[in-house]
Amino acid sequence: MARRFEMEEGGSRKFWEIAIEGHTVTVRYGRIGTDGQTKVKQHGTPEEAAKDAAKLVAEKTKKGYVEASSSGASAPKHPSPRARPKPPSPRAPRGRGLARRPREARGAAVRAALHR
Hints:
With 116 residues, the protein is an alpha+beta fold. The chain is built from two helices and five strands, in the order ββββαβα.
């Protein structure tokens, strides 16, 4: 049986799923609305697999992930990523960064950017 956890932080909506089958722990994660990525880890015994899974669940819940309801009837498994509008970007409007600096500082900023 797989367990699904979800987290919404800022503009990001993520999911994380974990399933244990015998010696194998399978983790699937990514943005809500996508298939995500899958990682499979083999363990020596089913007990080691269960212990590793419990540790991973504890780490995710500590980071803020919340277990999704198991009913499945209230929400689709992968809701559309466009279900909610994106919040406005916190960055400054384009074209103002270098223009407000004195001429000498503009040159230094450009040189620093080129040497990265």
